[in-house]
Each structure stands twice: as C-alpha cells, then as structure tokens.
C-alpha cells in the first residue's frame, strides 16, 4: 500500500510550500481540507492563504519563522474558512522547513501534513484552549507586552536579570533562570535566579567546546529544548550530572542574539514537564530576543556610565595638603541632569615660593562642553601658577588660553550655526600663610566675603577685570586682603548666591545669617551654606527670579587660625647684587653671618656663606642680569631653619656637571648637594630662583675663635677673586 493511500485513509493530506516561488502544492486530501477542489494541484500562495482565518494566519506566520530560525517542526491549529469567511473546519498542521540552498533562510520549502481535528463541544471534559486562540493567546500577548516594557526600562545588567527572574510566563513559569555570557572561548555566568549561592561555580569558566547545552547554543546559535531528564541524559551525557542535582524536569536553552551576534545563552528550567509546543517556544524565543536586546543596551549604558564617571572623577575638584596655620573646606554641587561635574570648579595649588594659590571659577554653561573647557582651563591655570607668575599674570595668560581654545572649538564643530564663544569667571588668590595675606585677582567673579572674628560678614570689594576668554589681552589688577587670626574668607561661584531664583542682593541676604552663625568647624559651615541653598528650607525662600535655571555650586572657605603661642618674627635680609657691583657678594656673605650670629653650629655658618658666594657668583658669571638675594631665619632656637634664595631674570636652568681635577668651575651644585639639608631650582614668572635650606642642629656652640670665616678656602678664594 502506498503512503498516499495510507494518509488518505486517515484523512491526512500532504502539502509543499515553496516560499521562494510563492506556490503551494497540495494532494487531493489537503486540497479538500482547505476547501478547494479535491484533486492534486499547485496553487498560488494567495489562493491558499485566503482559506486560513486571518487571526490564525498571523499566528502560523510567526510559528513558521520560529521553526525556520531554530530548524524545528512548525505545529499549529488553523481554522479553514470559505469565501464568505465562515469557519468550515479546524485542521492541525505539522511541517518542517527544508533549505535547498545552503541554509538560505529566505529560500526554503515547508513540507508537512494537514489533518482535520474534531472541535470539542462546550462543557465537555476535553474542552481545552487551543494553542492559538482563546484566553491563552490573550494572556501571552499581555505577558509579552509587560515583559517588553519592564526589560526596556531596565538600565543595568543587574536590573535586567532581576526583571528576567520575576517574569511569570502564562501556563509554564520556570523556577530557575541563568544567563550565560562569552569571554573569549569560555562560557561565563552573567547572572542567575532560583539557585543557591555557589551553584554557578561549575559553569563559571566553562570552555565553549564542552558538551553542555548552553555551550552548544552559543556555538550554533540554535535553541535547544529538553522536555525530559531522559532527553537531557541522552543528548548531553557528560554534563547531565551537573543538571541532575537541581531536580528539574524540563529545560530550554535559547541563544541571546543582538545585532546578528550571539552574545550568550539563556536557560529556563522547569520543575514540571513541559512539552515545548510551538506556542511555548514562540514565547520563550520572544523573551530571549527581548532579553538579549536589554542586556546589550545595559552593557553599552554601563560602559558609557563607567567611562563618564571615571572621567568626571578625574575632573572633580580636590583640596591639596594642609596649609600651616590655616583651615580650609570646600564643597561642589552639580545641577544634575546626569552629569556629576559641570563648569564650576575650585582648586588649591602649591606654589614654588612656598605659598598656596586658591582658585575658584565658573565656565559658562552646564553641558559636557562646559565640563571639558573647565578641565582644560584648570590645567592651564595650574601650569601658569606653577611657573611662579603673579596672580594678575596667571589670569592674563589664562584669558588668552581660553580665547584661543573656544576659537578652536568653533572651527572643529563646523556646524551651520557655530556655537557662541564661551567665557569663564575666575578668582585667583595667592595666600601667604605666615603673614595671613591674600593677593587676589578677579575676572568677572563675585567678590569674596570676609567674616571677622566676632562673626560679622562683609563683602570685601576687590578690583577686577573682564571674564576670561572675552579678550585676548586683559588686565587684572591685584588687591591684597589681610586675614587676621580668627577671620574667615569665603569664595564661591554665583550658583551659591543665585540658586532658587535669587539675584545677587537677595542671595546675599539669604547667606549672611549662615555665615554669621558661630561655628568652630569649617566643614559644618560649608555644609550649612549648601543646605541654605538646597536644603528643605530653601523651598520657602524662593527669590524674585523663580524661572531662572539652576546653576552649579562651588564654595571654598578659608580661616586663619589663632596661634596658641605666638612665635618670634623671622629674621630676614634682602640684597640686590648688580652686574656692575660684584664686590657686593662679600656684603651678602656678611649679611648671612649676621643673621646666624647665634647659630649653634659654626660649620653650618661656613657652609651657608660658601653656598651664598657660589649662587651669587653663578648669576653674575652666567647671566646678564642682577641677582636678588633673600635670606630668612625662622623658628625656635635650636630648631631654626635658614632659607636663602637667589633669583635672577634668566630662564636657563643650571645643570649639574662633573668638573675635572684642573677645572676652574662647575662645582657649585655639587657643593650645594653636599652641604645643604635641602636645595632646589624653582621657575618664576620671569627667570628662576635657586635656594637652599639649613636646619639648626642641637650641638653646643663652639668657641668664637673656632668659627672663623672658612668660606675663604680654595673655592672661597676663587669666588673672592671673582667678587673683587
């Protein structure tokens, strides 16, 4: 008996659907079931498609696409309708996609069977919902909509995994989930749900060639459905012991594909048997696609977030080392919008002359470009300050730098409407901790506020110039502010004053009571200033400009502490040695001896005199300018420090040499390295400064006759000859 006769006897027809040609070949039984003349023939796709119920056709289309993607059977129930749309019968279709052209998914043959099924009567025990119609389909659509929305809202890998673990699929919810990733040629665990801690260890670093379902899914890009433990054991006998201990009955392993690349696999385990019907596979496949997209988005977002935060952390303002005799506190608050850094900044810079520079500024704007300009301007200010320039020169150079930088931005952007040039306000203060003075240069920035020891807060008017970047050549006059012991100075950006819709007048009225509130802790004062602007009470003190956009806030507070025991003022001598007066080198040696008349160690006095001669002579011999010598002795007796600086206008730095035995010069730096406790060369705004330090020892004083002028030895004689 032929196969066709057997199939006809059991009311089963054969069909062959050529997707590329758009034709369907039917035998007599299949044609009858579809409501066509009961004879073999070939039909156009549109003629056969018109016999399916429209809802069922949309369903079978998705099931066929799933079977093509996974190379599995396509099984579904279809309602057959006549020309008027009335349902004639229900048939079951089972078909298999065949690819005649090397797996070309656009060119396939769908070969299968059609068989009529009896529809159960309402109320009978066999009346169950079909896989395509009824409440199950509506529940599935609602589930997929909710799952897609939840996964789309997840912003991190952790959130995606949490959403995946909370999914409740209609009719067959898994009790365990695992998401596998790929690192090189190895399988990793990205996350899991429904397992104990440590259960993932055997799968954490598994080679891709392992005979394990998830590894095979990653290698082939095809889903694997294991409806029973026997099926799992038969197909994957080596790794079956790893899965057996979880006590599950069915498993589904699906590829996670994003942008055409298999990025991992998703495992769903069930404690109850699941047959994985086409509809169930369609749900799992749809969830896997959504999960892959969500993980890809989360991965990109996390990478960008990590890069952004890393850059922002490197640009965040910081305070430097402690300032002797002074206390400093600072705060920075961005406006938000995702960026943790904006155009405001503060900085504390250690200067070559031992002083400290405090900088606070605000680049126009609140966007990424403002943050980028802020970072570059901050580096430039640090560079100019480290060169030893005075405050006015630092701001003049910074203004020229920013002006050129914004011009470069405009030429690079190349938009039809180029961006407007950016400017920045800035306040630069050079602090002398010992004298308590601040030399302030201001570029369009708010004036500082000085709080006296009795708590009175006053805006300290200072001279200023245009904001940085407005003109390439701008002048910035310097104002000296003397900070008495116990007094505090506050530097801030306009965001601290104007946030909340305030102008400069009303904002100052809001901040003044906070500044005048007695507090010993500057950190508490800085917090109180920010709270006055962003705290709960700030909502009740909205200013007259309520529609004004919020601004970044930077605040810097400095207090000069009250000394417990006042030290004696340092001894200081200053001497200019002109090129035409080399004999004044001997005057410099004598000044140093007089400063050290009660120094404990006479040998250190001789060393200091010898180094002064060498430094001053080096300026007269190797430069065309004059030498400026500053010698200072400070500290308590027995622990004093001598610091001598010799400055000149030449930018050429001295170099350490190795003179020969008969050489007449080149030993200066060698002597300083041997005799000084500390020494160095600092660049200045124009020129350089060579300095050394000696620290007084605790040895008893020697008799005066033993402390002769030893600076007139062989090297001293050479220097004396030059000086004469």
Question: Describe it for me?
Answer:
This protein is an alpha+beta fold and 724 residues long. It contains 19 helices and 27 strands. The strands form five sheets. The protein has a six-stranded antiparallel β-sheet with strand order 3-2-1-6-5-4. Strands 9-8-7-12-11-10 form a six-stranded antiparallel β-sheet, sandwiched between helices. Strands 13-22-21-18-19 form a five-stranded antiparallel β-sheet. A hairpin with a 2-residue loop joins strand 7 (176-183) and strand 8. Helix 5 (135-153) runs parallel beside helix 10 (278-315), helix 16 (584-595) runs antiparallel to helix 17 (602-622) and helix 17 (602-622) crosses helix 19 (714-723). The relative contact order is 0.06.
Features:
724 residues; alpha+beta; six-stranded antiparallel sheet; 19 helices; disordered C terminus
Q: Helices and strands in order, then pairings?
A:
Elements lengths: L2 H7 L2 E7 L4 E4 L1 H6 L7 E4 H5 L4 H17 L3 E8 L5 E12 L10 E9 L17 H19 L3 H9 L10 E8 L2 E8 L12 E2 L5 H8 L3 E3 L2 H7 L4 H5 L5 E9 L2 E10 L7 H38 L10 E8 L10 E7 L5 E8 L4 H19 L4 H23 L10 E9 L4 E7 L5 E3 L5 E3 L18 E5 L5 E5 L1 H5 L5 H13 L5 H13 L18 E8 L10 E7 L6 H12 L6 H21 L4 E8 L6 E8 L19 H8 L2 E6 L4 E8 L18 H10 L1
Helix pairs in contact: 4-10, 5-10, 11-12, 14-15, 16-17, 17-18, 17-19
Total count of helical runs of at least 4 residues = 19
Structural class: alpha+beta
Roughly how many Å apart are the termini?
A: 134 Å
Fraction in helix:
25-40%
Radius of gyration in whole Å, from Cα? 42 Å
Summarize the structure.
The chain is α+β, with helices and mostly antiparallel strands and 724 residues long. The protein has 19 helices and 27 strands. Strand 14 and strand 15 form a beta hairpin.
């Amino acid at each position: 008996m032929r196969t066709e006769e057997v199939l006809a006897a059991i009311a089963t027809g054969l069909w062959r659907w050529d997707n590329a040609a758009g034709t369907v070949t039917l035998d007599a039984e299949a044609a009858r079931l579809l409501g066509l003349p009961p004879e073999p023939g070939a039909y156009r796709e549109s003629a056969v498609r018109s016999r399916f119920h429209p809802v069922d056709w949309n369903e079978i289309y998705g099931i066929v696409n799933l079977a093509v993607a996974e190379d599995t059977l396509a099984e579904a129930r279809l309602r057959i309708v006549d020309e008027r749309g009335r349902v004639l019968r229900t048939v079951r279709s089972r078909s298999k996609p065949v690819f005649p052209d090397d797996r070309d998914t656009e060119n396939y043959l769908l070969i299968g069977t059609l068989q009529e099924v009896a529809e159960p009567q309402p109320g009978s025990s066999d009346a169950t919902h079909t896989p395509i119609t009824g409440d199950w389909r509506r529940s599935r659509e609602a589930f997929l909509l909710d799952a897609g929305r939840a996964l789309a809202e997840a912003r991190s890998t952790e959130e995606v995994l949490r959403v995946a673990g909370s999914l409740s699929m209609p009719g067959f919810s898994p009790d365990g989930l695992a998401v596998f990733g790929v690192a090189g040629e190895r399988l990793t665990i990205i996350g899991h749900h429904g397992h104990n801690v440590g259960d993932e260890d055997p799968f954490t670093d598994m080679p891709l060639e392992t005979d394990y379902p998830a590894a095979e899914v990653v290698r082939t890009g095809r889903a694997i459905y294991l409806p029973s433990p026997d099926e799992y054991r038969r197909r994957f006998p080596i790794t079956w012991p790893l899965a057996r201990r979880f006590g599950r009955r069915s498993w589904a392993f699906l590829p996670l594909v994003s942008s055409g690349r298999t990025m991992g696999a998703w495992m769903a385990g069930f404690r109850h048997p699941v047959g994985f019907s086409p509809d169930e596979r369609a749900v799992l496949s749809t969830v896997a696609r959504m999960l892959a997209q969500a993980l890809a988005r989360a991965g990109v977002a996390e990478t960008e977030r990590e890069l952004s935060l890393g850059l922002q952390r490197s640009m965040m303002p910081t305070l430097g080392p402690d300032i002797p005799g002074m206390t400093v506190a600072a705060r920075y608050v961005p406006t938000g919008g995702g960026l943790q850094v904006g155009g405001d900044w503060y900085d504390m810079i250690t200067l070559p002359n031992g002083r400290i520079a405090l900088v606070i500024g605000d680049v126009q704007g609140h966007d990424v470009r403002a943050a980028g300009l802020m970072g570059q301007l901050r580096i430039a200010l640090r560079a100019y300050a480290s060169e030893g320039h005075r405050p006015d020169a630092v701001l003049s150079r910074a203004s020229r730098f920013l002006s050129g930088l914004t011009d470069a931005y405009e030429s690079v952007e190349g938009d039809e409407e180029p961006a407007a040039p950016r400017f920045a306000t800035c306040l630069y203060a050079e602090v002398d901790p010992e004298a308590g003075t601040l030399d302030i240069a201001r570029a369009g920035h708010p004036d500082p506020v000085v709080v006296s020891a009795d708590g009175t807060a006053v805006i300290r008017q200072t001279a200023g110039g245009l904001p940085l970047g407005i003109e390439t050549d701008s002048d910035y006059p310097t104002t000296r502010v003397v900070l008495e012991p116990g007094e505090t100075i506050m530097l801030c950006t306009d965001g601290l004053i104007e946030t909340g819709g305030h102008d400069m007048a009303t904002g100052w009225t809001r901040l003044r009571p906070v500044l005048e509130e007695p507090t010993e802790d500057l950190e508490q004062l800085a917090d109180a200033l920010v709270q006055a602007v962003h705290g709960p009470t700030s909502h009740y003190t909205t200013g007259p400009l309520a529609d004004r956009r919020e601004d970044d806030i930077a605040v810097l507070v400095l207090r000069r502490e009250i000394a417990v025991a006042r030290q004696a003022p340092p001894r200081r001598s200053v001497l200019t040695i002109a090129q035409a007066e080399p004999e004044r080198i001997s005057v410099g040696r004598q000044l140093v001896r007089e400063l050290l008349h009660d120094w404990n160690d006479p040998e250190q006095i001789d060393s200091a005199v010898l180094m002064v001669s060498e430094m001053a002579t080096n300026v007269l011999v190797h430069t065309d300018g004059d030498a400026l010598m500053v010698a200072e002795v400070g500290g308590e007796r027995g622990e004093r420090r001598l610091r001598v600086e010799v400055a000149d206008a030449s930018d050429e730095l001295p170099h350490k040499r190795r003179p020969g035995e008969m050489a007449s010069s080149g030993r200066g730096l060698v002597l300083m390295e041997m005799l000084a406790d500390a020494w160095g060369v600092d660049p200045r705004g124009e020129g350089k400064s060579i300095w050394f330090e000696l620290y007084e020892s605790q040895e008893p004083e020697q008799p005066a006759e033993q402390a002769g002028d030893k600076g007139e030895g062989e090297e001293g004689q050479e220097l004396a000859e030059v000086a004469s």
